[in-house]
Design goal:
Blueprint (H helix, E strand, L loop, with lengths): L6 E6 L1 H4 L8 H16 L3 E6 L2 H9 L8 H25 L4 E6 L2 H4 L1 H16 L3 E6 L6 H5 L2 H11 L4 E6 L4 E2 L11 E2 L5 H5 L14 H13 L3 E6 L5 H6 L6 E3 L3
Parallel strand pairs: 1-2, 1-5, 2-4, 3-4, 5-8
Antiparallel strand pairs: 6-7, 8-9
Helix pairs in contact: 2-4, 3-4, 8-10
Length: 258
């Protein structure tokens, strides 16, 4: 993988950060902190786009089902974001790396003046050796928590920060010809050249707590590729796969930018 500027955006979803019970997967968060810190120590500039605030709050408060009421979801996001960043701060600190929280709304990237300030903040944090952790500001923005997820946000962040590579962690190994949850013989597609064609057959959400499915990942790939940024979908169960990516091994599904 050609990483000329050594800048990587990594996106993790709720299915990577929590168990099916809704409780926090501490092992996964620790692995994420360890590997990203190790990449940072190697000289890579790393940005983490993290979903999971609402899912973490659901587990923390013992709520059995994901609510549909917007004010409740916004309130849960406020609770969960606090819990999530507390964990990230603690675990990254154990590997001698500092993190910073950036919560974005659409206007932060759509309005040019705010976009410039946002970009300056990212660049300054990275120059200081700090790992930005990004999420949609769900407590004030309703579009993301009702109509999408952070896949598109991660692509927007990759474009905004001139990243070399976007990596999306999923609950499966990549893009398949059919749903591997239903078809044990489903074939993994190692490379996609025609996103538009694939999007017609993409399935929806694959996990109970997450709101995003393969369609949003393909939309993210389109955004990234159009900006000249390659994207990979890999399995979030193995955070160490980031080392394979850096070493140039073929993993997951690659959406190669031209």
């Amino acid at each position: 993988m050609d990483l000329k500027n050594k800048r990587i955006v990594v996106k993790v979803g709720t299915s990577t950060l929590t168990y099916e019970t809704g409780k926090i997967n501490l092992r996964q968060i620790n692995s994420l902190a360890r590997v990203l810190s190790d990449l940072r120590n190697q000289g890579f500039e790393v940005i983490l786009v993290s979903s999971g605030a609402i899912g973490v709050a659901i587990g923390k408060l013992g709520i059995k089902e994901r609510p549909t009421d917007t004010p409740i979801k916004q309130s849960l996001a406020a609770v969960g974001q606090c819990e999530l960043m507390s964990l990230y701060d603690k675990m990254f600190s154990e590997y001698h790396n500092t993190v910073a929280q950036i919560l974005l709304t659409r206007s932060d990237v759509d309005i040019q003046k705010r976009r410039n300030h946002t970009k300056d903040t990212f660049n300054t944090l990275l120059e200081m050796g700090i790992i930005p952790i990004v999420n949609e500001n769900d407590t004030v923005s309703v579009d993301e928590i009702e109509f999408g997820d952070n896949d598109n946000l991660s692509a927007v962040v990759a474009v905004l920060t001139d990243a070399d590579l976007l990596v999306l962690f999923s609950d499966i190994d990549g893009l398949y010809e059919s749903d591997p949850h239903d078809d044990p013989n489903a074939r993994l597609i190692s490379r996609v050249d025609d996103i538009e064609d694939v999007m017609k057959n993409a399935s929806g959400s694959g996990s109970r707590l997450g709101t995003g499915g393969m369609v949003t990942k393909l939309e993210a790939a389109k955004i990234a590729n159009e900006a000249g940024i390659s994207m990979l979908i890999v399995n979030g169960k193995n955070i160490d796969v980031l080392y394979d990516i850096i070493d140039g091994e073929k993993v997951g599904t690659l959406f190669k930018a031209y």
